[in-house]
Design brief:
CATH superfamily of the largest domain: Aminoglycoside phosphotransferase (APH), C-terminal lobe
CATH architecture of the largest domain: Alpha-Beta Complex
Radius of gyration: 20 Å
Shape: globular
Strand order of the largest sheet: 1-2-3-5-4
Strand content: 15-25%
Low-confidence stretches: none
CATH class of the largest domain: Alpha Beta
Distance between the termini: 32 Å
Amino acid sequence: MMKLDIMQAVMATVDSEWHCPLADQLAGRWPHDPGQVWFWRVSANFVFVYKHGGQDFILRFNHASERTAAQIVAELAYVNALAERGIRVARPIPSLAGNLIESVSTTLGEFHAVVFEKLPGEQLEVDDLSGEQFNRWGRALAALHEAATQIEVTGRSTWQDQLAFVAATVPAAESAIHQAVDRTATALQKLPITPQNYGLIHYDFELDNLIWHNGQPGIIDFDDCAWSWFAADIALALGDLIGESAHALDLQNEAFQQFLAGYRAIRAMNDAALHHLPLFIQAANLYTFARLYRALTPVNEAGELPWMAGLRDKLAAKMALIRDDLARGLPES
C-alpha cells in the first residue's frame, strides 16, 4: 500500500470517465491510442489499462519515493527470465525509446512507469475454484519456484531487509511489534537455506494475481518479489483460503491438500518446511503492518476524496487485527 497522500494527489485528477492526465503523460512514452487510457485500480501502484493496435496493455506506475528504479529493473529482469523458461507471465513492453522503465518528472513529482502486456483470461474467486483448479494453482507456484532456482537476479529485498524495514518504520511505542520482530528474526535465522528451499519468490501469489485462460493460471504483479524460503510463498498464496492469521492455518483443509498435491507433483516440499508456515505468515504480517503504518502517516484529512476516510478506517482495522494476532505469538506445534 502506497502512502495515502500520494494516492490522494493522483486520484484527485481522475475524472468521471476514469481518465487521468498523469496516466496520459506517462503512457505517451509508449505506443498507444490517445484518449484510450483508463484507470483500473490502485494499491501499491497505480494501474491503468490502455489500447494500441487493437491490443490491451497495462500501465503501472509509482511515485519515486515508493520504489526505486533499480528495484523495478530487478523485478523486470526476473519476469523476463521466468518467461524465457516457459512460465506464463505478463512481460514488460519496451517504450518508444527502447526502455523497460521510464522515469518521468511531472507536476506531482517523479514517477517510474512500466507497461506490461495484458494476459488474456479472467480472475477467479476462491469460492469458485474446483479441486482441480486448486491443484493447478499449486502446480503453477511449483513451476515458478523450479524456474527460480535457475535464475540469479540482484537488487531485490530479502526477508532480513523486510524485518529491518519494520524495525525502522514502526515507532518504539509499538513494543509488541518490535518484540515480534526480534522473535521472528531469531526463528528465521535458525532455518536451513539451500538452493532447493530458498530463492526469489513471488511473495503475493494470491488469486488476484493470477489470470486464468484455458484452465491454466498466468501470473502478474511481481512487484513484491523477494528472497525468502519457497515455503513462504505457499503460506502467502493461501491468504484467500485461510485468512492472514498464523493461527488459522489448517494443513488438513481439503483445498489446501489439493493445492499441495499440485505443488508436489512438480517439485518437492517436505512436511518439515510446512511446519514453518505460521512463522512465514507472521513475518509477512509484520511487514504488512509496517507498510500500512507508513501509508497512514501522516494523515491529512483536509480536502480528501470522499472514499479516503473509509480506506483509512479499513487499513487501521487491518493493523489492529495484525497487532492482536502477533500478540498471540506462534501457534503451538
